[in-house]
Amino acid sequence: VTATEVTIGTEGVQKNPFNTTGLTLAVNLYYEAPVTVDYMSRRQSQVDLISNAEEESAYAIKKIMDTSLADLFSSLDSGGGTDGSAITDAVLIAAVEYLDEADAPEENRSWIFDPSAKADLMGIDKFVRSDYFAADVIPTGGFRKDVYGAPVLITNNLTANSTGSYGAYLHRDALAIAISENMEVDRVDQPLKHQLVINTGALWGVIEIRGTFGYYICTRLA
């Protein structure tokens, strides 16, 4: 929708904000993570093997869902940083400028990095020195959880580049995920095999919605 100058005595042309080209999000990622616990081990152990197996199965699904979104970072419309090199403040500022120029709202932006990028941020003075942020990071020795107004999220599930990985600075509308089946758990007793099978499954799809609302950032280590 665009604004037009008023002409006295003339009705303005009405716009349909929903008359846009649609995107098809294919819900085509179907994964499972079966785990088997045998009856004998279950009875012998003082540890709750069933609970642990359920957590491990669900965690495996969460990792692959995380990875499926991270795979889209490298196809964003623009990016910066150098593969295998440390993240610099100049790279961060360039990312913020890019989203600002794309008219991406300042709310609902995030940085998604790997541990090597987190270490790089800890080496940039303005994010750790107390004279930049009074009574903020240095007194507690904590890691600053936001950079230029957006939270910093750390994951080991970024897509690998040649040496490093593809991180990103994103507005929420850059990418989308649709989940049709989320963490459905099946517990199947197999008495003739003397075991219990725990299987977590999920069905989902991901897609890029607005490539200009994201900026990929090359990190130092994969």
Structure description:
This protein has 222 residues and is α+β, with helices and mostly antiparallel strands. Helices cover 22% and strands 30% of the residues. The protein has a 6-stranded mixed β-sheet with strand order 2-9-6-3-5-4. Strand 4 and strand 5 form a beta hairpin. 24% of the residues are buried.
Order of helices and strands: EHHEHEHEEEEEE
Percent of residues in helices comes to: 10-25%
Mean pLDDT: 90
Total helical elements = 4
Radius of gyration: 23 Å
DSSP strand (E) fraction?
Answer: 25-35%
Question: What is the strand arrangement across the widest sheet?
Answer: 2-9-6-3-5-4
Number of strands: 9
The protein's oligomeric status is: single chain
Low-confidence stretches: none
Amino- and carboxy-terminal Cα gap: 42 Å
Quickly give the structural class: alpha+beta
Major sheet summary line: 6 strands, mixed
Q: What form results from the Cα inertia axes?
A: flat
